[in-house]
What we know:
- By secondary structure, the protein is α/β, with parallel strands linked by helices.
- It has 9 helices and 6 strands.
- The termini are close together.
- Magnesium ion (MG) is lined by residues 8, 10-12, 17, 44-45, 172-173, 176.
- Keywords: Magnesium, Metal-binding.
- It holds the Pfam family Hydrolase.
- InterPro entries: B-phosphoglucomutase_hydrolase, Beta-PGM, HAD-like_sf, HAD-SF_hydro_IA, HAD_sf, PGP-like_dom2.
Amino acid sequence: EIQAIIFDLDGVITDTAKYHYEAWKQLADELNIPFDWKFNEQLKGIDRMASLEKILSQLPDEGKSFTLEQKQDWATSKNMNYQLLIEKVDESEILPGILDLFHDLKQAGIPAGLASASRNARTLVRQLKVEPFFDVIVDPTSVAQGKPAPDIFLKAAEELGVASRYCVGVEDAEAGIQAIKSAGMFAVGVGDADTLSDADYIVAETSQLSFYDIRRHFVG
Length: 220
Ligand code: G6P
Ligand code: MG
């Protein structure tokens, strides 16, 4: 039986994946580096610095000639773009079906955790007013390795006091699904079935997420 559900934030609870894209796009344009939706797919779930490295690796020099300070400035610049874009995010931007799912979990007595790689996650959770639905919010700075490593999902399970095999992870990114699987959890993917093919159960949109359907498919 399922004993806990651990959620990603960006692209699962709210459509901030599009704001991350826009914020990176602004920086990439300034640096004259090609950047499109397809490339952005690889950045979903990946932390800020690692994302920047992937973008810079497109340059002929492999980006190796930049100082750490320069890279930190670019990462900060992306984050400033992002923070402007999410300034007005409120509960109207919670994705369809998510609140119903949260209510069903509460009713079933299933605790929920948040395993977002974003350092802006707590701010968004507050703006979206979904704080009461989470028993645990993992601080991404407290884990050694970002997704696709399992660390953040394992930390959430540990803080919830639930063994991995009784946990379900919900993700919209390939790196996220890999993290859930490496953590030994049941992976629910939201989005494109080809991109998320390693997931145990896939829905195209959040509106199709239902606790009862997940429970029916759950193998733990
Ligand atoms: C999430 C998003 C990524 C983002 C990462 C770090 O995983 O899917 O696109 O790069 O968080 O976010 P941050 O807000 O800390 O830059
Ligand atoms: Mg995501």
